[in-house]
Amino acid sequence: MGNASDGGNCDHADWADAHLLEPVPARRLPARWSRSVHLIAEDRNELRIVELELRYMQQQELLQELSEVLYEQQRELSALRAEVEAL
Description:
The chain has helices at residues 12-19, 31-86. By secondary structure, it is mainly alpha-helical. Mean pLDDT is 80; it is low at 1-6.
């Protein structure tokens, strides 16, 4: 099966693959479709913001846990140093 680029004829599946996936310029869309596309984009942006906020909160919780572990380890290290100095 050839395609237009190699001089052969495109079959319908090749044509569909090549043309149906092309972006449609917004000016060719009916106004209500443009509004719908815009609303979908806004919803996606809002979803992304929520995802980022959730990830930020999770990172803050993890940072707090790590900070507590580090504090405890520093206390234990100080106690060990005191024991070594006492020897």
